[in-house]
Specification:
Layout lengths: L1 H20 L3 H13 L3 H14 L4 H13 L3 H14 L4 H13 L3 H14 L4 H13 L3 H14 L4 H13 L3 H14 L4 H14 L2 H14 L4 H13 L3 H14 L4 H24 L1
C-alpha cells in the first residue's frame, strides 16, 4: 500500500512539474518578440515556428515570422507567411501591406498593386498604400495612374519625401519639367540625404544646359553615394561640357571601372579625351 501511494505521489509530482515547465504558444511568441527586438531574426524564427507547432492558426506568429524573413531579405518566405496569415484573417491590413511591400521589392508589381488596392478599398485614406501603389504603377510605366495615386497620397501626408520625389519623377516622364523640379526640390528639403533626388535634379539641369548647377548636384549625389556608376558618367559628361577634360576623363574611367556596361559608350570617348589632353599638353610645352 505504501509503495502504491509513493508511486502515485511521484506521478502526481511529475505531472505538476511538466505542466509548470510546458511552454505555451504565447510564451514562444513572447520569446520571439524579445529576439525580434534584439534583431536576432533567425532566433526569433525558431520561437515563432514553435508557437505555430502548438497553434497552426496563430495569425500573430505567422505575421511576426514573416517580418523576420522580410528583415533577412527572404521575401518569398515572408510572402508565404503573410499569405498564411491572410488565409486565417483575410482583412488583416498589416499582412496585406507587408506582402504588398515584398511583392514590390521583388518586382512583382501587379501582385503588389492588387494588395495595395485591397488595402485602399478597406481604408481609402491610407496614404502609404496609395503612395506605394503609385510607385508600383510608375515601375510598370503607368504614369497617369502613378500620378493620381501619388497626388492623393501627398494630399493626406505632404511630408513623405519619397512619394513627393516619385511624383517629381512621374512628372518628368510625363514631360512636365516645371512641376517635376518643384517636387524634387521639395523632396530634397524633406530628405537632404537622398542622393538620387540630386541626380534627378542634375538631369533636369543638364537638359537645360545649366552645367554649373548640374555639377553641384552631382557632386552632392556622389558625396552621399559613391557606389553608382551613373553618377560619375553624368558628372563626366558635365565636366566635358564645362571644358574640364581631365576631370571628365577621370569620371568616365571611374564609371567604366564600376560598370562594364558603359564600355560601348565610353571606350572611344576615353581615347578621344586622352588624345585631346596629350595634344593640349604638347601645345602648352611649345608655348
Amino acid at each position: 500500500m505504501q509503495k502504491l501511494l509513493l508511486m502515485l505521489f511521484f506521478s502526481f509530482t511529475l505531472v505538476i512539474t511538466l505542466n509548470l515547465f510546458a511552454q505555451t504558444e504565447e510564451d514562444h511568441i513572447i520569446y520571439g518578440n524579445e529576439k525580434f527586438d534584439a534583431e536576432d531574426y533567425k532566433g526569433a524564427i525558431i520561437d515563432y515556428t514553435k508557437a505555430l507547432e502548438i497553434n497552426p492558426n496563430s495569425t500573430s506568429a505567422y505575421v511576426m515570422r514573416g517580418n523576420c524573413y522580410y528583415n533577412l531579405g527572404e521575401y518569398e518566405n515572408a510572402i508565404a507567411d503573410f499569405t498564411k496569415a491572410l488565409e486565417i484573417n483575410p482583412s488583416h491590413l498589416k499582412s496585406l501591406f507587408a506582402r504588398a511591400n515584398c511583392y514590390r521589392i521583388i518586382k512583382k508589381f501587379e501582385n503588389a498593386i492588387q494588395d495595395y488596392t485591397a488595402i485602399i478599398e478597406m481604408d481609402p485614406e491610407n496614404s502609404d498604400a496609395l503612395g506605394f501603389r503609385g510607385i508600383s504603377y510608375y515601375s510598370i510605366q503607368k504614369y497617369q495612374d502613378a500620378l493620381s495615386d501619388l497626388s492623393n497620397s501627398i494630399n493626406y501626408n505632404k511630408d513623405n519625401s519619397r512619394f513627393v520625389w516619385y511624383r517629381g519623377k512621374t512628372y518628368l516622364k510625363l514631360g512636365d519639367t516645371v512641376k517635376a523640379l518643384d517636387d524634387i526640390n521639395k523632396s530634397i528639403e524633406l530628405n537632404p540625404k537622398n542622393s538620387y533626388a540630386y541626380y534627378d535634379r542634375a538631369g533636369i539641369h543638364i537638359d537645360k544646359g545649366e552645367w554649373d548647377k548640374a555639377l553641384s548636384d552631382l557632386n552632392t549625389a556622389i558625396s552621399l553615394n559613391s557606389k553608382d556608376a551613373s553618377f560619375y558618367y553624368n558628372r563626366g559628361y558635365t565636366y566635358e561640357n564645362l571644358g574640364k577634360l581631365a576631370e571628365a576623363l577621370s569620371d568616365y574611367e571611374t564609371a567604366l571601372n564600376m560598370n562594364s556596361n558603359y564600355e560601348s559608350k565610353l571606350k572611344d570617348k576615353i581615347e578621344e579625351l586622352k588624345t585631346k589632353l596629350t595634344e593640349k599638353k604638347e601645345d602648352n610645352n611649345k608655348n
